[in-house]
Amino acid sequence: MTNFTTRLMVAAATLVAAAGAASAQTLKAEIPFTFRANGKVMTAGAYRVTVSRMSAGTPILYIRSNDGHDAALARPQAPYDAPKAWQAAGKPVLSFACGEKLCSLTGVWTGDQAPAYNFSAPKLGSDEPTRVALVVLRPEKGD
Questions:
Q1: 12 φ, ψ to 5°?
Q2: What are phi and psi of 51, to 5 degrees?
Q3: pTM metric for this prediction
Q4: By CB count within 10 A, which of 5, 24, 47, 98 is most buried?
Q5: Per-residue pLDDT for the chain (143 aa), expressed as one digit of tens each?
Q6: Where are the beta strands (DSSP E) in the chain?
Q7: Residues 75, 77, 78: CA angle, nearest 5 degrees
Q8: How far does CA 88 lie from the centroid of its chain?
Q9: Half-sphere exposure of 101 (CA within 13 A, CB side)
Q10: Taking the alpha carbons of 91, 56, 68, 95 in that order, is the dihedral positive or negative?
Q11: 65 within 8 A of 33, measured Cβ to Cβ
Q12: Using CA atoms, how far apart are residues 131 and 143, in angstroms rounded to an integer?
C-alpha cells in the first residue's frame, strides 16, 4: 500500500468518526417514577439521554442515571412524524406508557425537524388502567 493510500484511509476513518460524534445529542431528564427501558427496570431520578445516529442513520438511545447506577440502551422502531402537541410545545420529550405499578419507555422526540421514534414495550393488562406520561428533555449544560 502506498503512503498516499494509507493517508487517505486514515483521513476517511477520521471523517467517519467525527461525523458519528457530531451526530450525538445529549439531553437531561428528571424522571419522577420507576420505569422500564428495553427490559431493564430503572429508578426515578435524573438521567442523561443521548441519541446517537449511526452511520446508516439508525438512532440508538442511551439513558444513564447521573449517579451511574442505571443505564439502558434502546433501539427505536421506524421513525414517524411527532404528534402535533409535541411539535406545538417545541420541547423534546420522552413518552411512557404507565400502568398501576410501572411505566415503560415508548417514545422519544428530540425536537426541531427530527422524527419521533417508538420503542417496543411490554403490553399492559387489558383490565389495568393506563395513562401516558411525558417527560420534557432539556439541553445538558457544561458539556
A1: -65, -40
A2: -105, 115
A3: 0.76
A4: 47
A5: 555 433 434 333 333 333 333 357 899 999 999 999 988 999 999 999 998 876 667 788 899 998 887 788 888 888 899 999 999 999 999 999 998 888 999 999 998 788 999 988 877 777 778 899 999 999 987 54
A6: 25-31, 35-37, 40-42, 45-53, 59-65, 71-74, 79-80, 93-98, 103-109, 116-118, 131-136, 138-139
A7: 135
A8: 20
A9: 3
A10: positive
A11: no
A12: 34
Q: Nearest Cα to 72, choosing from 21, 35, 110, 100? A: 35
Q: Quick one: cell of 65? A: 442515571
| C-alpha cell, 71 | 443505564
Q: Which three cell numbers stand for residue 49?
A: 439521554
Q: How many residues does the chain have?
A: 143
Neighbour order of strands in the sheet with 45-53: 71-74, 59-65, 45-53, 25-31, 138-139
Do the bridges between strand 93-98 and strand 131-136 make them parallel or antiparallel, or are there none, so unpaired?
Answer: antiparallel
Asked if 48 contacts 66 with a C-beta cutoff of 8 angstroms, the reply is: yes
